[in-house]
Design goal:
single chain; 82 residues; mainly alpha
Length: 82
């Protein structure tokens, strides 16, 4: 079996193919360590931030505005529950 054979759709319908990929992603998620998750998240941020910065300053400004609005409320909620 070659590496491409496992990805051939064959007689799968769309729902079965989605389930197959979902099972593979779930298996991958179960086997990643916390360090790998942190490395993946840092990589995504390091790649996405400059793209967002160059491509759409308005979108980045709106995201920052939402974060500034949401984070203080989350902090207040956590502190109130303590």
């Amino acid at each position: 079996m070659t590496n491409l054979t496992q990805y051939a759709t064959g007689s799968y319908n769309a729902a079965q193919l989605c389930q197959l990929w979902s099972d593979r992603v779930d298996a991958l998620e179960r086997h990643l360590s916390a360090k790998m998750w942190a490395l993946s998240a840092a990589s995504v941020v390091l790649i996405a931030y400059p793209i967002l910065r160059v491509a759409s300053p308005v979108v980045l400004h709106n995201i920052v505005a939402v974060l500034h609005g949401v984070v203080p409320q989350v902090v207040r909620t956590v502190l109130a529950s303590i």
